[in-house]
Amino acid sequence: MISKVAAKEALDKIISKSRIHFYKPIQIAEILYRIRHYGDINPLNLEEYRNESKRWRDEISIQLLGRKCTSSARFQDDLFNDNAIPPKVLNTLSQENLSTGGAVEAYIYCRFTNKHNQLFNALSYCRDSDKSNFSVINFINSFWNEPGLKRSLDKIYEIVVYALFSALVESLNLKIELSVDENKFDILDEFKDFSQKVMCLDMTRPKFIQDAKIYRVGVTNAADRGLDMYSNWGVAIQIKHLSLDTTLAENIVGSISSNRIIIVCKDAEQDIIISLMTQIGWRSRIQSIVTENDLVNWYEKALRGKYADVVGDKLMETLCSEIAEEFPSITDLPDILKSRHYENITDSFWV
Fold first, then answer.
1. Closest among 140, 122, 147, 119 to 20, alpha carbons compared
2. pLDDT at 214 exceeding the cut of 60
């Protein structure tokens, strides 16, 4: 039998590792809620709730956050591994939850709302600033300095980089031209249905010009690897705010097919990244490395430099809109949690 102290430690470990969306703790809370209200699940029998609990989690996540989990099935199932919340730990949590009238659920959702209060304070700095007083390093540090928000720092870095790159590309009116060599018109004509559908080219229009764009992939997986952003002129961008080792470096570059990769990292990581990429023979695939110091300098120019009137407002608008899209705004206790009256639970160990 797992003690309630050990079970709480296991739960706290999951909570501390959770990003702002809190999917895994919410999944545990909803399993406990289901057991408490319906009594139709044996917490020791994983197959009774392994898959169904994902649906329960998503149903309440949509109400709380306006979105649901998109991580891989394997990553989601890691929740029930021996080093997370295996059935024997869940069984103890369930017994505690039943004996206290829902105190473990209340504990999880209290931690959820506390984290979102921290997030609201950090994001308010961005919303309440303008190009004259916004400091990107202060914004980033507000996440570094708040333990409950560090797990969301990768997304903040991604948004900070995207907002800057996108605003500059748009302000430059950058164009991309796709054209066919005149000597290859015969092939173009032969495959005109392909060229029209895939390249927007044909014999009447052998040249195509479009606006340059930067795109966010939108989902960063739990291992923090792979493509974060890409452009329509061939550049792939990977954001890395934590330390790299050889294995992770191989995973990052190995998962991106582009030979023009830009890595954004902290200043102290630049030499390490170059060394690692050289070791694994992929240095030639790195087009450039952008450091945090580069970002700070470029933000200063964009917001308060010679062309701030052209770039600054666009940058702040993109930054705020991406933040609003990425992070749910929870300024009051959601109705679904109000209806459960967790505030009436007074167990001293949990609440």
1. 119
2. yes
**Rounded to the nearest 5°, which phi and psi values hold at 43?**
-60, -15
3-class SS of residue 265: strand
Question: Which class for 93: exposed (0-12), middle (13-18), buried (19 or more C-beta within 10 A)?
Answer: buried
Q: What backbone torsions phi and psi does residue 98 show, to the nearest 5 degrees? A: -70, -40
pLDDT at 222 over 70: no
Report whether 145 contacts 166 (CB < 8 A): no
Best CA proximity match to 295, nearest among 136, 118, 144, 149: 136
Run of H or E residues at 51: none
- Taking the C-alpha atoms of residue 55 and residue 57, their distance in angstroms, rounded to an integer, is 5
The pLDDT score that the predictor gives to residue 300 is 97
> Which residues of 175-285 form beta strands (DSSP E)?
175-179, 207-211, 214-216, 229-231, 236-240, 261-265
pLDDT at 223: 42
Provide the β-strand partners of residue 208. 178
* Calculated CA dihedral for residues 98, 102, 105, 109, nearest 10 degrees: -170
Closest residue by Cα to residue 8 from 112, 78, 108: 108
Query: Secondary structure of 8-38 in the HEC alphabet?
Result: HHHHHHHHHHCCCCCHHHHHHHHHHHHHHHH
Per the DSSP assignment, residues forming a β-bridge with 211 are 175
Neighbours of 260 (CB within 10 A): 15
pLDDT per residue over 263-319, tens digit each?
A: 887 777 777 777 766 776 666 777 888 888 999 999 999 999 999 999 999 999 999
pLDDT per residue as tens digits for the range 161-181: 999 999 999 999 999 999 999
Distance (Å, whole) CA 217 – CA 228: 5
Domain residues of the chain, as ranges? 4-99, 130-174+212-326, 176-211
What proportions of the chain, in percent to the nearest 5, are helix, strand and coil?
60, 10, 30
Residues in the chain: 351
Listed residue (45, 43, 48) closest to 32, CA to CA: 43
